[in-house]
């Protein structure tokens, strides 16, 4: 390897990271670095941003900020950036202990909400009449209250939901993502894109007065 290529610093910014609130953001937190060992150790400790309360809990660090910080500390250093043009840093505050009362209220709300949704759906499609007709077709006798069939049907709904969402409490049957996890991932991706776009708008507004002056 020649001298010029050995002096290049290769950076790959991460897409999103979470850090404890109040700590300074260093290069090691937001990027992977490949350089000469002595230089790499110094670069990893390089402080990029010292977040303040007014910055909020989401901070976007642009590749130009990273390169500028490196050039300020190591003038003339060549930098090659790979991958993402920015990284979204979430400043995470210490988690509060969940309230058992609040947990119980939310659980009851979700439980009865889901139950009412299923019952209203069944009422809309006349499910009781359908179940009575199915039992009559199977047994040859009409039963206005086929509790055995309805009980088995209810258990089947619960089992079907477990299979569909691939979850039983914290246990997963396989590594395939659940529909809910996919939707949450897409929501998080859209949210991150929105936050990045808004942060770039703020940067542009902040730079515009300086350019005019």
UniProtKB/TrEMBL annotation:
This is Stage V sporulation protein AA. It holds the Pfam family SporV_AA. The keyword Transmembrane applies. The keyword Transmembrane helix applies. Keywords: Membrane, Transmembrane, Transmembrane helix. The chain crosses the membrane at residues 101-123, 147-169. Residues 8-93 form the Stage V sporulation protein AA domain. It comes from the Bacteria.
């Amino acid at each position: 390897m020649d001298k010029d290529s050995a002096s290049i610093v290769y950076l790959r910014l991460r897409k999103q990271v979470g850090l404890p609130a109040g700590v300074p953001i260093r290069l090691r937190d937001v990027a992977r670095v490949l350089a000469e060992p002595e230089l790499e150790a110094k670069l990893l400790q390089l402080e990029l941003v010292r977040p303040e309360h007014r910055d909020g809990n989401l901070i976007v660090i642009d590749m130009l900020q990273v390169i500028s910080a490196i050039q300020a500390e190591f003038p003339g250093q060549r930098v090659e950036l790979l991958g993402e043009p920015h990284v979204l840093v979430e400043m995470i505050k210490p988690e509060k202990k969940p309230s058992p009362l609040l947990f119980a209220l939310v659980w009851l709300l979700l439980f009865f909400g889901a139950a009412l949704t299923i019952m209203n759906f069944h009422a809309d499609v006349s499910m009781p009449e359908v179940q009575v007709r199915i039992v009559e077709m199977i047994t040859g006798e009409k039963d206005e209250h086929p509790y055995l069939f309805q009980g088995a049907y209810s258990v089947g709904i619960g089992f079907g939901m477990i299979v569909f969402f691939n979850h039983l409490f914290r246990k997963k049957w396989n590594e395939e993502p659940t529909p809910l996890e996919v939707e949450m991932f897409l929501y998080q991706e859209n949210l991150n894109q929105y936050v990045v776009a808004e942060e770039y708008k703020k940067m542009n507004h902040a730079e515009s007065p300086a350019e005019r002056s």
